[in-house]
Amino acid sequence: MARRAPSRLLPALVAALLLALTLLVPSAAHADPGTITGSVSDFDDNPLGGVTVDLVNAGSTTGAAVVSATSVADGTFSMPTPPPNGGGYWVRYSKDGFGTTFLDNGVVDGPVAVTVAGGQLSAPDLDVSDNDLGDVTLRRPAATVKTPPALSGKLVVGQTVSVSAGTWTIATDPDYLSVDWFLDGVDASEFSDGAWFQKFDVPAEAAGRTLTYLVTVEDPDGERDAATYSGTAGVVAKANGTLTGAVKGKQLTVQLTVPGLSSPDGSVVVKDRKKVIGTVALKAKGKGKFKLPKLKPGKHKLTLTYTGTAGVAPATATVKLTVAK
Asked: Which residues contact 71 (CB under 8 A, 6 or more apart)?
């Protein structure tokens, strides 16, 4: 009797059954493409319930939520995946007593844009391939000012003004304080000095411009967002100099002394009574020399007029001399 060939129907049925089971069971490597998951904790890694998690259109920190969820007691949340849009979504986390936080990638400052395609998420420098946003830490709100920073010193060209730290709802540490200075809104921090840049050496080009400052206070523990305080110092005044002159022989020497400026420049007009007899250019250390023309014998009163510059106000002086016959 001839042997029957083994049936090929059974293996085919087994293969079909295994394929069907595979399609029915979700892959361990991929979450439900229709759901976004994640978790929230505080600075001490304790899970946070009651956190509102919103997906908003990228570019608007206060935009309306497209989809939203609230974390439960163990800090986890889930929400439906939103439809694709042109610019992606920012993920916003908010809860009373905490600072509003946005999902970031730790590479660039600011929120990271999460895009949706085929129900799956993607984001630059962030692994969200399983539609899990990971765990996000909420920080405490930024400190608030109690006593505002105060300015000291004369707001005059050549002088130095300083700003105090003020008092805040957290203790301030000089290592976590900084000041940015602005002239008519343009950064002028290059003229700042001090342990935390709290001093501003007023340059000549500041005259007539408005000086403002921005004090930044960071939390040494990193638990809070940085806090800032904006202040206006006022309009910078020109420096007032002292002009002197002396005659030795036929040479006139003039000197302009301006507090805070080692070598004020400009020129001095010399008059004998009402007649202009010459102009002296100020050079190093605010000095200038001028050879007097031939003057009539007798007493003379020379008037010296410093014409001023953008940063230094005009000044005058007189010099008396007697010309022998």
From this structure: 39, 40, 47, 48, 49, 50, 51, 53, 77
Which residue shows structure tokens 């290592």? 175
Sequence ranges of the domains in the chain = 32-137, 145-235, 242-323
145-235 shares its CATH topology with 242-323: yes
Report the candidate in 139, 199, 194 with the shortest Cα–Cα distance to residue 170: 139
Query: If you search the block for the tokens 């605010």, which residue do you land on?
Result: 286
In CATH, 242-323 is 3.40.50.300 = no
**Tens of each residue's pLDDT in the chain, 325 residues:** 333 334 444 444 434 444 444 444 443 334 456 899 999 999 889 999 999 999 999 998 999 999 999 999 999 999 999 999 989 999 999 999 898 999 999 888 889 999 999 889 999 999 998 999 999 999 888 899 999 999 999 999 999 999 999 999 999 999 999 999 999 999 999 999 999 999 999 999 999 999 999 999 999 888 888 899 999 999 999 999 999 999 999 999 999 999 999 999 999 999 998 999 999 999 999 999 999 999 999 999 999 999 999 999 999 999 999 998 8
Q: Name the CATH superfamily for 32-137.
A: Immunoglobulins (2.60.40.10)
Architecture of domain 145-235: Sandwich (2.60)
Beta bridge partners of 199: 162, 193
